[in-house]
Amino acid sequence: MKSALAALIQLRLVYHHTSSEGLSTYQANQKNVYPLLRSGRIIQLARETGGPSAEAILRELTLLGYATVQELEAQVVGDGNMEEQNDHSGQVNGHQNNTGSSNPESMDASSFRAGLVHLIDNRYITKLRDAHFQSPFDAAKEIERHLNAFEGSGTTAKSKKAQLDLDERVRQQLAQRLDDITSADVILLELAADEPAFDRQVCFPFQ
Q1: 190 and 172, same domain (yes or no)
Q2: Looking at the 3D structure of the chain, how many domains does it have?
Q3: Are residues 188 and 141 in the same domain?
Q4: Where is pLDDT greater, at 191 or 15?
Q5: Do residues 45 and 60 share a domain?
Q6: Rounded (5°) CA angle 116-133-75
Q7: What residues contact 206, with CB distance under 8 A and at least 6 apart?
Q8: Does a structural domain hold residue 17?
Q9: With bands split at pLDDT 50, 70 and 90, how would you rate the model's confidence at 183?
Q10: pTM (2 decimals)?
């Protein structure tokens, strides 16, 4: 049960949210079901436009659900025996990784980065943030609670104008939290860094 739920969350088919009181709620993310079903066609398009390296990267990322660029490079760049490499790779994102058959050919770091740049520039890959695991309703309510607590007006009746102003600020902050745009330059800089930057993960774009 727990492993199945974790897999659905990893594939962003289930939203989850834990309140400040420690209560967790889950909600089906129906919007992402159809893109997951057409992932084969998307991977085919990646190959047609970006070549075998783009295809291999996107296929691996689709299987993982999401990964940091460091994790993705470790999975894709190999010595031609990915199955043997993956047997010793442990877990990725809390799940045992058994995707050795996805990329049987070797790929050097230069080809990986060229394929990665193509996928990012063409929006096959986007940035994944914590808010993407929450339903839009839960994320908006969390922002609203934070704003009310900051202003000390959580239980005070608001005028219509004040409520409209609050709603607009919630909308703006929600848009910032859900912003999934990244650039190849930023990702390549992170890839060259010793440690992955916080909130700089990449994901298969389920839009």
Answers
A1: no
A2: 2
A3: no
A4: 191
A5: yes
A6: 35
A7: 11, 12, 31, 32, 35, 36
A8: no
A9: confident
A10: 0.62
**166 and 66 in a common domain:** no
What are the DSSP E strand ranges found in 74-178? Answer: 91-92, 95-96, 126-128
State both tokens at 84: 């043997």
Residue 161 placed within a domain = yes
Decide if 114 contacts 184 (C-beta within 8 A).
Answer: no
Do 72 and 119 belong together in one domain?
yes
User: Quick one: 97 and 52 in the same domain?
Assistant: yes
Whether the pLDDT of residue 185 is over 60: the answer is yes
The pLDDT tens digits for 93-102 are: 444 444 444 4
Strand partners, 101: none
CA nearest 114: which of 203, 181, 53, 182?
Answer: 53
Q: Are residues 107 and 199 in the same domain?
A: yes
pLDDT digits (tens, 9 = 90+) for 149-159: 877 655 555 68
Same domain for 92 and 186? yes
| DSSP structure class, residue 78 | B
Residue 24 in any domain: the answer is no
Tokens 């808010």, located at residue: 131
Q: How does the average pLDDT of the chain come out, rounded?
A: 76
Output the CA angle 113-117-122, nearest 5 degrees.
Answer: 150
Helix H or strand E segment including 121: helix 109-121
Distance of alpha carbon 31 from alpha carbon 86, whole angstroms: 32
DSSP three-state, residue 110: helix
